[in-house]
Amino acid sequence: MRRPIIDLAGASRIYDLGRVQVPALVDASLRVDEGEFVAIIGPSGSGKSTLMNILGCLDRPTAGQYVLDGTPVEELDDDGLAFVRSRLIGFVFQSYNLLPRTSALENVATPLLYQGVPKRERLQRAQAALERMGLGDRMDHEPSELSGGQQQRVAIARALVTNPRLILADEPTGNLDSKTGEEVLELFHELNDQGVTIVLITHDSDVGVRAGRQVHVRDGRIAA
Ligand SMILES: Nc1ncnc2c1ncn2[C@@H]1O[C@H](COP(=O)(O)OP(=O)(O)OP(=O)(O)O)[C@@H](O)[C@H]1O
Ligand SMILES: [Mg+2]
To answer: Residue whose CA is closest, atom 29 of ligand 1?
Structure first.
């Protein structure tokens, strides 16, 4: 029996800008079972990143329910959410969100700091993750000293370093050439074969078809 790791039911997210309200996500329901590889596909502005923020507990829905790995997130306070995020999820953000003026190695090691991993092990694991992403010769570079595609691969290394059960990746190949993008998709498949649940967000249906299942988002709504 498969069991849901993501169970979102009737969730909406309305951004309240005072004069206008932006319904970025409307009545969205999504179930992802442990071990699945799902692509969320939709055009720019359709609500993909809004959805990812909710799935990753970085934001809360303004209506509806979200149960993550069996836990209703509305029952968790901010510390509880931070704990769940740190233990369960590896994030690849659309804009990378790397720490500026901080080496690639330190960037990748940071999630392990929040897990209380000792320094020596942190650096060893960060180095291995960067080498896996083909960045063994860029470990001492700061984000401003790396190309966009290299920064994206540092962000992917940072998502993998904690061995998360769930990876949420927002346009992880958006800034990569086709060969490197292909390698990242293969890596995600390898991780998925090892049991890691993958949610990959993309506007590119050629990338989306590589997942086991496709979920389409349009105008804040998940297509049935
Ligand atoms: N913080 C915010 N405040 C107000 N509106 C927002 C905010 N974030 C997103 N929006 C709006 O919500 C809608 C969905 O945005 P979102 O970033 O989720 O789209 P997306 O599908 O990720 O787009 P892209 O492919 O360009 O990254 C858009 O209309 C956007 O303008
Ligand atoms: Mg987005």
So the answer is: 45
Sequential pLDDT tens for the chain (224 residues): 689 999 999 999 999 999 999 999 999 999 999 999 999 999 999 999 999 999 999 999 999 999 999 999 999 999 999 999 999 999 999 999 999 999 999 999 999 999 999 999 999 999 999 999 999 999 999 999 999 999 999 999 999 999 999 999 999 999 999 999 999 999 999 999 999 999 999 999 999 999 999 999 999 999 96
Cα 13 versus chain centre, distance: 18
Do strands 213-218 and 221-222 pair parallel, antiparallel, or not at all (unpaired)?
Answer: antiparallel
CA 16 from centre of chain? 25
- Is pTM beyond 0.90 here? yes
In the reported structure, the alpha carbon of residue 170 is separated from the centroid of ligand 1 by a whole-number distance in angstroms of 13
**Ligand 1 atom with minimal separation from the 220 CA:** 14
Residue nearest to atom 12 of ligand 1 (CA): 24
Q: Is 203 in the pocket of ligand 1 (CB under 6 A)?
A: yes
**Domains in the chain: how many in total?**
1
Which amino acid belongs to residue 133?
Answer: M
CATH number at residue 94: 3.40.50.300
Residue 39 lies in a domain: yes
Q: Is 12 in the pocket of ligand 1 (CB under 6 A)?
A: no
Any domain includes 193: yes
Distance CA 218, CA 180 (A): 28
